[in-house]
Amino acid sequence: MAPAAITPESSGTTTPTTQSASALTQAGIKHALPETHAPLDASKITHTYTTTPRAVPAPDSDETKSQKTCTDHMVTARWTIESGWETPELKPYGPLSIMPSASVLHYATECFEGLKLYRGYDGKLRLFRVRKNCERMLRSARRIALPDFEPSELEKMIVALCATDGEKWLPKERAGHFLYIRPTFIGTDAALGVQRPREALLYVIIACFPDMTKSLPSPPALNGSAANGAAEKKASSGLKLLASNEDTIRAWPGGFGYAKLGANYGPSLVAQGEARARGFDQVLWLFGKECYVTEAGASNFFIVWRTKEGKLQLVTAPLEERIILEGVTRASILDLAKTRLSKSVNDLESLEVVEHRFTMEDLLSAQSEGRLIEAFAAGTAFFVAPVGKIHFRGKDVEIPMAEGDSGAYAKLIKSWLVSIMYGKEDHEWGVVVEEKGVPQ
Predict the structure, then answer these.
(1) Cα radius of gyration rounded to whole Å, the chain
(2) How far is CA 283 from the centre of its chain?
(3) Is 35:77 a contact under the CB 8 Å cutoff?
(4) From CA 404, how far away is CA 392, in angstroms rounded?
(5) Which residue positions does N6-(pyridoxal phosphate)lysine occur at (predicted)?
(6) What is the pLDDT of residues 399-434, one digit of tens each?
(7) Which of 64, 412, 390, 436 shows the shortest CA–CA distance to 214?
(8) For the chain, N or C: smaller number of CB within 10 Å?
(9) Please, where in the chain does CATH 3.20.10.10 lie?
């Protein structure tokens, strides 16, 4: 079965198009507020520096792996329906004060983002396409009935925090390392009524995060007898994915799978826990009785295959039905592939980039007929992670890995992104952060 282009009718349900869903979001979710209400203005940010600075943990320490350690400061901005946005504050990292009846605790009025601050090999701090994260957070906020803000102002808040804490927490001797940035937006209205929050808090924190790519399985060593060696060569490296069951759905047309909401992630933890308990790294989320392939855990999913007509393609699920996250890494991979893989590179054949529906049946047919070239997941945490095995309905599907621990296309695309993120390539996607540190 060849991949088919998305249409509302093809899913067997009434599905809003991107345009109609966007119109619904704009008209039905935004707060109707007077123009006199104060907009978010990061130029007015106030600074209060910590008097109890903490030690920076080593990159591979247990403290870093716990993902609980944050930098010395955070940035917050409060919003109320009466006055709009208050002055943003850069202040010491610490607990938030909200009422037990706060909207976020009862109605999940919360959204967030995830991005990284990189220490380049040229010594500079960089953010990667930070504006796209800020724009996506606005879309998420509108979907969850939180107030509007100008994405460029959130970007300034992020840059201010990175400029303050980056020098200490990501020193120049840690070139090639990163910190994890978590902008978060919560409804703090203390009223228990089911209504749009009349009060909200936008904040940004930076956490010490392990390099998730280092935890991926490595290819087995080739030793022992010839028979053992042959078996080892067949063993999978890369991510091992467990395909979701028919009774487990992560997102659905007309829902909120496209928004980065906490409500998208909590319900997926049961399936993720089952996958881990069975020895898999993540869940491969399928949709509908047709088993359309959507995402891998919290990451976008890509395959490289050859069509039955012989055309080489890079394929990922489309955005139109709004059941997958519009990943920043996803968008970057598509952009780079369209511009750089339209012709052969490093002896790799050129390919066509398509955003199409495809099913597990399509994938299985390609694998059995020798047309499946490789597969990988892509997101902020695992970055570009090759997939070596998919377990579907009692059967293991082995995915080719031309480079031993990766497919050739995933390896090349990853190298391009790394070069931009860490300053090996001068590119507009790499936003340099001017370090200021904490005044002495």
Answers:
(1) 23
(2) 15
(3) no
(4) 23
(5) 260
(6) 999 999 999 999 999 999 999 999 999 999 999 999
(7) 64
(8) C
(9) 235-406
Q: For residue 173, how far is the Cα from the chain centroid? A: 27
Show Cβ contacts of residue 364 under 8 Å, excluding neighbours closer than 6 positions.
Answer: 392, 397
The C-alpha atoms of residue 115 and residue 57 are separated, in whole angstroms, by 20
Residues in the chain, total: 440
Fold of 16-211: D-amino Acid Aminotransferase; Chain A, domain 1 (3.30.470)
Task: Quick: pLDDT tens for 241-270.
Answer: 999 998 889 999 999 999 999 999 999 999
Instruction: Kindly tell me the sign of the dihedral angle through the C-alpha atoms of 101, 106, 112, 114.
Output: positive
Mean pLDDT of 342-366: 97
Specify the residue for token string 């999913």: 301
Helix (H, G, I), strand (E, B) or coil at 163: helix
The Cα 437–Cα 372 span in angstroms is 49
If phi over 0 gives left and psi between -120 and 50 gives alpha, with beta otherwise, what is residue 393? Answer: left
Asked if residues 125 and 177 have their Cβ atoms less than 8 Å apart, the reply is no
Residue by residue, DSSP assigns 343-380 as: S-BTTBPP-EEEE---BHHHHHHHHHTT-EEEEEEEET
Q: Measured between alpha carbons, how far is 138 from 148 in angstroms, rounded to an integer?
A: 7
Task: Name the pTM for this structure.
Answer: 0.89
- Residue indicated by tokens 């203390």: 190
User: What confidence score (pLDDT) does residue 146 get?
Assistant: 98
Q: Which CATH class is domain 235-406?
A: alpha beta
Mean pLDDT (the chain, rounded): 89
60, 61, 64, 68: CA torsion to nearest 10 = 160
Query: What pLDDT shows up at residue 382?
Result: 86
Per DSSP, which regions of 211-258 are E strands?
239-243
Contact 58, 105 (CB under 8 A): no
Cα of 409 vs its chain's centroid, Å: 20
Between CA 181 and CA 93 the distance in angstroms is 13
Of 304, 268, 294, give the one whose Cα is nearest residue 387: 304
